[in-house]
Specification:
The chain has 792 residues and is mainly alpha-helical. The chain is built from 27 helices and seven strands.
C-alpha cells in the first residue's frame, strides 16, 4: 500500500495532452482487464489469491497481483508477458441492498434506453432533435403515470372510497378517524381534508424520487471526464468520442426539476379536480366555484412551463457542460410546491353536504395518459422510420423502429405496475368485494389486455422452441464435420448442437419485440375504447349482440386483474429477496449492467449510469500510465467490459489511441449494441474505432448467446474477428484434456490458447517508437512461429 501513496501524485501530475516529451520506454507491457456483466473478483480476474488495490475505492478500483505492484520499476520492469491489471466495477450496479429498490425504476430505465436507440442519420438534425424530444415527453408521461397511480391508491381508494364507506372503514381501524361516522364534528372527516392528508403519500413519493436522483448522481455520475488541451474530435461517426458525452450534469438537473414539478402538479390536479367537481354540482359554493377554475388555470400554466422545460434542447456533449440553470432548478419545484399548498387550502375548505361517493375522476386521467402515450409512440415510429431511410442500415434492429418499440414496452410496464398496485390495494381494502367501487374502469380494461398478450408471448416462445429444434438438428451435422471421426457420443453431440441453437436465438430478439410491442399498442387501444364504451353505456353492454363480447371481456378482466396482482406480489417478493440476498442482488445487477450503461438523457429518475464513473476511470488510468511509462498497453474487455473498453478508447486523445491495442472477447459490440444502438455503435462508428487504435482483435464462439463478431475488415489479417473458437476445446478425452472438456459458451475465454496467442500478436505490433508493419499473408503465421514484428 505504500506504493499506492507514492504513485498517485505522479499520476495526477499529468492531466493534459500537452507537448511534453515522450517518456523513455520502461519495457513494461500492461494488460488492463475489464470484466463483464455479473461482476468478478480481482482474485478470479488475475488468477491469484494475493491482490492489491493500487487505485480506486470500494465502489470501483484497479487491482494487481501483489508481486506486480512495482512492475514498472527496474529491474522488475523487464519481464516476459504483460503485467495484468484488473478494473473491478461490479459494485457500481450490485453493491448494497438499496440496489433492489431500483426495480421500481424499471420503466424509467427502459424509456431512457429508447433515447439511445435512435437510427443513424445523415443531415437530418431537426428530425434527430424531434426524436429526442418525443422520448423525453414519453418519459415525462411515465412520471405522471406513476404519481397518478399513487394518487389513485392513497386519495381515491383509501381516503375517498374506503374512509367514506362505513363498512370498509370499520375493517381498517387506522382509517377510523377519517370516517364521517367517527364523530359528528370530526375535522378530518371532511372529504377535502381527507384527500389533503392522503396527498402526503404521492408527495412523499415525488420527493423520494427527487432525492434518489440527486443522491445517485452525486455518488455515480459526478466524475468529470479527463480534459485535454486538445479535445478529441467531436465530428466523428459516434457521439461517444465527444468530450461531454459522459457528463450530462446540466440536462439531468434540468429534467430532475421538471419531473419533480410534474409529480407535485399531478397531486395538485387530483385534489383540484375532486373539489371542483363538487363545486360545479348543484348546491355548491358560488365563491369556491369561481376559485376552482383559477386554481386549475394556474396548475395548467405551471404544467405548460414544465413541458416547455422538457422540450428545451437536450444533451450538449460537444463540450464539457458543467453549468447549471440555478434559477430554474430552484424556482420550478418551489413554484409547484406552492401551487400544491394553495390547492390543499382550496380542497380543504369546509363544504357542507360534500359526501364521498363513487370514484374520483381517475378514468379521465388514466385514459388521457394512455392516449398521449399511444400517440407519442406512433409519431416516434414515423420519425424513426424517416431517420432510418436517410441512412439505411440492414443490421439495425427492426429497421430503426427499436426505439419506438421500447418506448411502448416502457409504457406497458408503467401501466402494469400502476394497475397492479391499484388492484392489490383495492382487494386488500375491500374484503367483501362489494363495499367500494374499486379502481378506475380504464385500469380494469387494461388488465383485460394481459391474458391475450400472454397467449401471444406463449405462442412466440413455442415458435422460438421450434426454431431452436430445427437449428439444433442442423448443427448436429456441423459438429460431425468439425470433429471428424470423434462424434461417437450422440448425447455429447446433442449438447453441443443445443448450445449453438440456444445461442442463435439472441438474434431473434428484434422480431419478438416487434410483435409484442405492436400487439401491446393495438390491445391498449382496444382497452381504451372498451373503457370509454363501458363508461358511456354501462347498462347496454350486456344486452343483445354485445353479450358475448361483454362476457369475454369480464372474464379477461378478472383473469388479468388476478395476474396483475400476482405479478405485483412476485415483483415485491423479488425485490425483498434481493434486498437481503447478495446472490439475488447480483442477478438484478446484471439487468442494470445492460440497462444503465447509457447516461440519463430521457428520464432523470432512471437508475444511475455507471459508465459515467467507469469510463473516466479507465481513461485516466490509460492516459496517465502511457504518459508515465511509455509502455505498451492492451485494453482487454470481456462482454460488457468490451463495451466499456471501446467507450474509454473513444475518449482517449488521438495520440494515445494509436498506442493502444484492443482485445475483445464475448463482445456484444456489434451483435447487440451495433444493432440496437446504430447511431452510436453502427458500422461507421466501429470502423472508425478500428482505424484509431493500433490494432483490434475480437474472439467469439458459436455457443455464446451474447458475444459475436464485430464484422470489420482489419489490417492484422483478413478481419478483426478471429474465426469462431472451438467450444468445447476437445470433443472427447485427449492427452491435453483427459477429462471431458466443458462447453464454455460466454465464459472463460482466457482458458482458450487462442487468447494468449492473440495477446502476443497485439503486443508484438505495439513495439514502441517503431512504425507497426501491416500484416500480410496468413494472420496467424507470426503467432504460430513466435516471431515478433521486425524492428528497424
Amino acid at each position: 500500500m505504500e506504493h499506492t501513496q507514492e504513485e498517485r501524485p505522479a499520476e495526477r501530475a499529468e492531466t493534459t495532452d500537452g507537448p511534453a516529451e515522450r517518456p523513455k520506454d520502461s519495457g513494461t507491457a500492461l494488460e488492463l482487464l475489464v470484466h463483464g456483466v455479473g461482476g468478478a473478483t480481482p482474485q478470479d480476474m488475475l488468477n491469484d489469491p494475493r491482490t492489491v488495490r493500487i487505485a480506486g475505492d470500494d465502489v470501483a478500483a484497479i487491482f494487481r497481483r501483489a508481486d506486480d505492484v512495482r512492475a514498472e520499476r527496474p529491474p522488475a520492469g523487464h519481464r516476459d508477458g504483460p503485467v495484468p491489471e484488473a478494473y473491478v466495477w461490479c459494485n457500481l450496479t450490485s453493491g448494497n441492498g438499496t440496489r433492489a429498490l431500483w426495480l421500481l425504476l424499471l420503466p424509467f430505465m427502459v424509456v431512457n434506453l429508447a433515447h439511445w436507440m435512435r437510427p443513424a442519420a445523415r443531415g437530418r438534425r431537426r428530425l434527430t432533435r424531434l426524436y429526442g424530444l418525443l422520448v423525453r415527453l414519453a418519459g415525462l408521461s411515465l412520471t405522471v403515470l406513476l404519481v397518478a397511480a399513487a394518487c389513485q391508491v392513497a386519495l381515491d381508494l383509501a381516503a375517498w372510497q374506503c374512509a367514506g364507506t362505513q363498512a370498509c372503514a370499520d375493517r381498517h381501524s387506522w382509517l377510523g378517524f377519517l370516517s364521517p361516522e367517527a364523530s359528528d364534528d370530526g375535522w378530518w372527516s371532511e372529504p377535502g381534508r381527507r384527500l389533503g392528508l392522503a396527498a402526503l403519500v404521492p408527495t412523499a413519493l415525488t420527493g423520494l424520487l427527487w432525492y434518489l436522483s440527486l443522491r445517485t448522481w452525486s455518488a455515480y455520475e459526478s466524475q468529470q471526464p479527463m480534459t485535454h488541451e486538445t479535445e478529441p474530435e467531436d465530428g466523428g461517426p459516434t457521439a461517444l468520442s465527444r468530450p461531454g458525452f459522459w457528463y450530462g450534469r446540466r440536462l439531468v438537473a434540468r429534467l430532475r426539476a421538471a419531473h419533480t414539478a410534474a409529480g407535485l402538479l399531478t397531486v395538485a390536479f387530483a385534489l383540484a379536480l375532486a373539489a371542483a367537481r363538487h363545486d360545479r354540482a348543484p348546491g355548491g359554493s358560488a365563491a369556491l366555484a369561481l376559485l376552482g377554475p383559477l386554481v386549475q388555470a394556474a396548475l395548467l400554466a405551471a404544467a405548460a412551463v414544465v413541458v416547455c422545460v422538457v422540450c428545451r434542447r437536450g444533451r450538449t456533449d460537444r463540450r464539457l457542460d458543467d453549468a447549471l440553470d440555478a434559477h430554474l432548478l430552484r424556482l420550478l419545484p418551489l413554484a409547484a410546491l406552492l401551487l400544491l399548498a394553495l390547492t390543499l387550502v382550496y380542497a380543504g375548505w369546509r363544504r357542507p353536504g360534500w359526501d364521498s361517493a363513487g370514484r374520483l375522476p381517475g378514468d379521465m386521467t388514466f385514459g388521457a395518459i394512455a392516449l398521449v402515450q399511444g400517440l407519442l409512440v406512433i409519431v416516434l415510429a414515423g420519425v424513426a422510420h424517416a431517420l432510418h431511410r436517410s441512412a439505411p442500415d440492414r443490421r439495425a434492429a427492426m429497421r430503426g423502429l427499436a426505439g419506438p418499440a421500447v418506448v411502448m414496452l416502457a409504457c406497458a410496464l408503467g401501466g402494469v405496475m400502476s394497475g397492479g398496485v391499484a388492484q392489490r390495494v383495492s382487494d386488500w381494502l375491500d374484503g367483501t368485494g362489494t363495499s367500494i367501487p374499486g379502481p378506475p374502469v380504464v385500469l380494469t380494461w387494461q388488465a383485460a389486455v394481459i391474458p391475450p398478450l400472454l397467449v401471444l408471448i406463449l405462442g412466440l416462445c413455442c415458435w422460438l422452441a421450434r426454431r431452436a429444434w430445427h437449428i439444433a438438428r442442423e448443427e448436429r451435422a456441423a459438429v460431425a464435420r468439425e470433429f471428424p471421426g470423434e462424434t461417437g457420443d450422440p448425447a455429447r453431440t446433442r449438447r453441443i448442437a443445443n448450445a449453438r441453437a440456444m445461442a442463435s436465438l439472441t438474434d431473434r430478439g428484434p422480431r419478438i419485440l416487434a410483435v409484442t410491442s405492436a400487439a401491446t399498442l393495438l390491445l391498449g387501444a382496444g382497452a381504451l375504447v372498451g373503457a370509454l364504451a363501458t363508461d358511456r353505456t354501462p347498462g347496454e353492454a350486456a344486452q343483445g349482440t354485445y353479450a358475448v363480447v361483454h362476457g369475454a371481456a369480464e372474464t379477461a378482466q378478472a383473469l388479468g386483474s388476478w395476474l396483475i396482482g400476482l405479478g405485483f406480489i412476485l415483483f415485491v417478493t423479488w425485490g425483498r429477496r434481493a434486498y437481503k440476498d447478495a446472490s439475488a442482488r447480483r442477478t438484478i445487477g446484471i439487468l442494470w449492467d445492460v440497462g444503465t450503461f447509457w447516461p440519463r438523457a430521457a428520464h432523470p429518475f432512471a437508475p444511475p449510469c455507471y459508465a459515467e464513473r467507469a469510463v473516466p476511470d479507465l481513461t485516466w488510468r490509460i492516459e496517465t500510465w502511457t504518459r508515465t511509462t511509455g509502455g505498451r498497453l492492451v485494453l482487454s474487455g470481456h462482454s460488457q467490459g468490451s463495451v466499456l473498453a471501446a467507450a474509454a478508447a473513444w475518449q482517449l486523445t488521438p495520440s494515445t489511441r494509436r498506442r493502444v491495442a484492443l482485445l475483445t472477447y464475448g463482445s456484444p459490440l456489434e451483435r447487440l449494441y451495433g444493432r440496437w444502438f446504430p447511431a452510436h455503435f453502427g458500422p461507421d462508428a466501429l470502423g472508425a474505432l478500428h482505424q484509431d487504435v493500433d490494432c483490434w482483435r475480437n474472439l467469439h464462439r458459436r455457443t455464446d448467446p451474447i458475444g459475436g463478431p464485430v464484422r470489420l475488415p482489419g489490417d492484422c489479417g483478413p478481419e478483426v474477428d478471429r474465426p469462431p473458437l472451438k467450444d468445447p476445446l476437445a470433443y472427447g478425452r485427449t492427452g491435453s484434456h483427459p477429462l471431458p472438456a466443458p462447453i464454455l459458451g460466454h465464459s472463460d475465454y482466457q482458458a482458450d490458447p487462442a487468447f494468449a496467442e492473440e495477446r502476443r500478436r497485439l503486443l508484438a505490433r505495439l513495439r514502441p517508437d517503431v512504425p507497426a508493419p501491416r500484416c500480410t499473408g496468413d494472420p496467424d503465421d507470426g503467432a504460430r512461429t513466435g516471431t515478433e514484428a521486425p524492428t528497424a
